[in-house]
Structures are given as structure tokens and as C-alpha cells.
Amino acid sequence: MLVTYDGIVVGRREIGENSCFLDILTDEQGIIEATAHGAKKLNSSLHGSAGLFSYATFCLSKNRERYTVNSAKPKRSFHELGSDIEKLALGSYFAQAVKFCTPQEQAQDSLVRFFAIALYEAETAQTSARLSCVRSAFELRFSCMLGYRPDLRGCCNCGGFEHEDMFFLPDSGEIFCGDCFDRSYGGRYYVLTPEILSAMRNIVYAQLNRAFRFPLSDSGAALLEKITENYFLTRTERTFTALEYFKGIRQPVIIDKK
Ligand SMILES: [Zn+2]
User: Fold this and answer.
1) What is the mean pLDDT of each run of 10 residues along the chain (258 residues)?
2) How far is the CA of 166 from the centre of ligand 1 (A)?
3) What is the model's pLDDT at position 184?
4) Whole-angstrom Cα distance, residue 105 to residue 4?
5) Which residues surround ligand 1, an ion (CB under 5 A)?
6) Is there a single domain that holds both residue 138 and residue 60?
7) How far is the CA of 120 from the centre of ligand 1 (A)?
8) 27, 48, 77 — which closes off a domain?
9) How confident is the model at residue 250, as a pLDDT?
10) Which CATH number goes with the domain that contains 15?
11) Which residue, 48, 77, 106, sits at the end of a domain?
């Protein structure tokens, strides 16, 4: 049986000298593992589409439960990611996260598009703080897609939309305004400045193509990164080796003093 899916390569394992297994992220079937025969040969028609982060239309033949790549038509390659070690590490973390969290053989809504946007935003990020924002947007928006959407519409007690300090409770995904928050609360919480709350609202509620686009100071980006990492890792109940690597190599964000 032949099937055609748009997908992005999120994992690749070598088999012998010339071939490889590809993990292809698709909307229709989640993650598909497919064999790409001869893909490592330079003259193979699959060569360009079998690389990590290659976005292509894959024509696959399915025999019993196994997929083989017949042909692939490249749509976009995020090869610029490979020229910057921080960006490559971040892309690898995104790939590990979707591989772990996406069920096999189950339809996903807009996941390929989301992943492509995340790679594009990482690839084109100009500063370390901007890369932090891309990472935060990925973690928080992906949490929403997995069913863990925080309620950031307003204070969960009085409904207040804005306050100098808003308090975010990551365990329940709720926010309280400064008037309603019980300061003796013993659980985990973060104090959100208006710009951080505004960035988080953008990530959660904006259309997918705008979810990564928001203004944020460098200090805001550094704090947002802590919040979204905590939120995402707590929800997925694990850590990722690629994330540890990314954090280990990255340049510290220089905090602007305003
Ligand atoms: Zn309130």
C-alpha cells in the first residue's frame, strides 16, 4: 500500500553503510519509522530529504506494519540550524520532545506545522534571549497541544485581567492577581510581570503562526524560560538529554538593566 504524507525527520539511525531508519513526524500518523534504502549514497534521490529536520512530502510503501520511503519531495530544509551549535541543540531538544510525546499511528492536529514554525523561529533567532523566547514558546504551546493548557485569561478568583504582579501556579495552571493571592501559599508559584504574562498569553492564545512572536526584555526572557521549562517538564514527567545538553553549552543571556 502506498501512502503520502507531509512530514519532518525528527530522528535518524544508520543501518549499514548506505541506509537509515527515519523517524518522520506526520499529522496523519504521529511518528512513523520508515526505512530509507540507500539514502546515505550521495547520488540517492532520497539523500536531501533523509537528513535530520528535513521537511518533505514523503511517499511511503507500507507492508504489514513496516514503512519504506519510496520517494521524497523536499519542501524546506532547516540546514542553517546545523551551522550554530546552540540552535542545533535546541532543535534536537524539540525533536526529542515531540518523539517522546507524540503517540504513534494517531492523527495530530497541525503538529507538523507547529514543528516547522518552531524550527524556523530557532533558525532565524538573532540573539540568545530571542532563542530563549523560541524555546519558551515551544514548551508552553506544545504543552497546550498535549492537553495541558494553563488558564491565563484572568485571576481565577476575581477575573482581573491585569495587575502589577500576577501569580502563576504551575501545578494548577492558574493565575491569581496580587489582591487575591494568598501570600502564605506553600506550593510553587512564579510572580509574573505584565510583560511576561502578556508573552505567555500570546504563546497560549495566538494563532499558531503568531505564537512565537512577542516582545520581551532579556530579563523577562530569562525568567519565562524557567517558568515554561518547569511547566513542560512537570507535565511530561521527565527530562530530556538534549535539553540538558542545550543548557550546558548555551551562552548566558545578558540581562539588560532597566
Ligand atoms: Zn483577583
Assistant:
1) 95 92 94 92 86 95 93 90 93 96 80 96 95 98 95 96 92 95 93 96 96 96 96 92 93 58
2) 9
3) 92
4) 14
5) 155, 157-158, 160, 177, 180
6) no
7) 38
8) 77
9) 86
10) 2.40.50.140
11) 77
3-state secondary structure of 174: strand
Residue 5 host element (H or E) = strand 2-15
Tell me if 200 sits within 8 A of 192, measured CB to CB. yes
Same structural domain, 217 and 151: yes
Report yes or no on 256 lying in a domain.
Answer: no
Give 205 Cα–ligand 1 centroid separation in angstroms: 21
Cα 193 to averaged position of ligand 1 atoms, centre (Å): 15
Strands lying side by side in the sheet with 166-169: 174-177, 166-169, 190-192
* Ligand 1 centroid distance, CA of 183 (Å): 13
The alpha carbon of 178 and the centre of ligand 1 are apart by a number of angstroms equal to 7
CB distance 138 to 111 below 8 Å: no
One domain, residues 97 and 135: yes
C-alpha distances in Å from residue 46, one per residue of 1, 69, 115, 137, 220: 20, 8, 21, 32, 43
Place of cell 506544545: 142
